[in-house]
Design goal:
alpha/beta; globular; two-stranded antiparallel ribbon; Rossmann fold; 2 domains; five-stranded parallel beta sheet; about 375 residues; 15 helices
């Protein structure tokens, strides 16, 4: 089975893969920053593409990759001098690079992501050191067409410690004519030395019009509840639409309504449903919903306007996060409990137990906020 025929960890279920998406919405500033660096011959060897999850970082990375592969380095000006600098990152629709990138067959391109384990029928939990070593061997191959070598790492957040250290060695001594595009949803979790060796390219959440256009391009339509919860993230909106996310979020709110006297049997029922065998996408979505819930709670406690997803949500937030102190408690929980949950998944702990542990931690935080 070819790689593109397997499930892909960098693709949202029900949506086209970012390499298939030629139109990019809402990131003109990031595009202009990269184009200016290219035109002024200040093209850094490593770019850290950051911003909230689902706002187009991967789509931007693939757009940059197509541009770099279709625009080889200029050795000299030639008989007629250097060509004028490009005014856009767009590549002509009939350019052969588009076809090769779509098929993952371009000799100058390497994609690094969490692999799919065919035997276990699930994605590997992390990007390991062996994956970075395989990428390093790519730089040792001869490119028959010359030109650049472009690596897309989606996402750098998925690397374990050994993989991160191996990547750092490559960044410290970058191969010639190599460009690394590192996608990161949470760059603060990366090694400071990795961040310091990359130029940051920040992406922003999409506005209402841009969100609508991006969703229409995928054939999806939003609702007020989806728009409120997605907060400018097309990826989150698509996950909510295709994964029945509003119903799952409603279950989370229903559980939270009883904090700090949580109904343990209700929590167990929710945990069993989310962590059911073969429901990895549902677990991923629930993990993201917990992250959004905690972020929205923290903002509400600080007095930031949070568009409600349901009629009951404002009163719930006012009770659970009545002030700044409670807001900080919820933010601290997000900073500690979510990494613990992700680590537990990485080492294959029981999913239902992980969710129950998260529910208990939220219940305990609610008790402290009430006190």
């Amino acid at each position: 089975m070819s790689e593109e025929a397997l499930p892909q960890s960098d693709q949202i279920e029900g949506a086209p893969h970012p390499r298939e998406t030629l139109a990019l919405y809402g990131q003109s500033a990031a595009e202009a920053t990269f184009l200016e660096a290219f035109a002024s011959d200040r093209l850094h060897h490593a770019w850290l593409i950051t911003g909230p999850q689902g706002i187009g970082k991967a789509t931007l990375a693939w757009k940059l990759a197509r541009f770099l592969l279709a625009t080889p380095p200029q050795v000299d000006g030639g008989l007629f001098g250097a060509p004028p600098p490009p005014e856009s990152l767009d590549v002509a629709a009939d350019h052969p690079v588009n076809t090769r990138v779509l098929a993952l067959s371009d000799p100058g391109l390497y994609l690094l992501r969490r692999a799919y384990d065919v035997d276990k029928k699930r994605f590997k939990a992390q990007i390991g050191v062996e994956d970075i070593r395989a990428m390093a061997s790519f730089f040792g191959l001869t490119n028959a067409e010359g030109g650049r070598r472009v690596v897309i790492l989606d996402a750098a957040d998925d690397m374990n410690v050994n993989a991160a250290n191996a990547l750092l060695k490559i960044l410290e001594e970058p191969p010639a004519d190599a460009i690394l595009l590192l996608i990161s949803h949470q760059p603060s979790g990366l090694l400071p030395t990795i961040r310091s060796r990359c130029r940051v390219l920040r992406c922003q959440p999409l506005g209402e019009a841009e969100m609508s256009a991006a969703l229409q391009a995928t054939g999806a339509e939003s609702t007020p509840g989806v728009a409120a919860l997605a907060s400018g993230s097309v990826g989150d909106a698509l996950r909510l639409i295709h994964g029945d996310g509003l119903a799952l979020y409603a279950s989370l709110l229903d559980l939270a309504e009883e904090f700090p006297r949580m109904d343990r049997s209700k929590a167990l029922k929710l945990a069993d449903a989310v962590a059911a065998r073969g429901a990895e996408a549902k677990f991923d979505l629930f993990e993201r919903l917990v992250e959004l819930f905690l972020a929205r709670l923290s903002k509400a406690g600080l007095g930031v306007a949070v568009p409600p997803v349901s009629e009951a949500e404002p009163a719930l937030f006012a009770r659970l996060a009545p002030d700044g102190q409670a807001a900080r408690a919820w933010a601290n929980l997000s900073a500690t409990a979510l990494p613990r949950l992700r680590h537990g998944r990485a080492v294959n702990l029981d999913g239902a137990s992980l969710i129950l542990d998260m529910a208990l931690a939220m219940n305990e935080t609610a008790a402290k906020a009430a006190a």
